[in-house]
Amino acid sequence: MTVSNTRGAAPRIADDVVYREHEGALVLTSLSAGGFLRLDDVGREIWTALADGLDVDGIVARLTAQYDVSAEACREDVEAFLADLAGRGLVVSGEAVR
Prior knowledge:
Layout: E1 11-13, E2 17-22, E3 25-30, E4 37-39, H1 41-51, H2 56-66, H3 71-87, E5 91-93
Antiparallel strand pairs: 1-5, 2-3, 3-4
Helix pairs in contact: 1-2, 2-3
């Protein structure tokens, strides 16, 4: 999945992914792949933005408004994080968000 192309389909949460709060953290799992991923605070912010239907530009705008980070550095980190999530089958390319 290419997440840097913000003019194309926005990344979205895969249909078989469930996520819940557990002991103060957001925990994700893919029902088809199994395993769990616990997100830190910034990861949680990115996941929440995905759940809210934001594309990469929207995620970067939200994060740069909340944290002291340049848009360029933020975009690089967001794209790397989304690529990692895509590699785990947690995020896919598409128009609709759960």
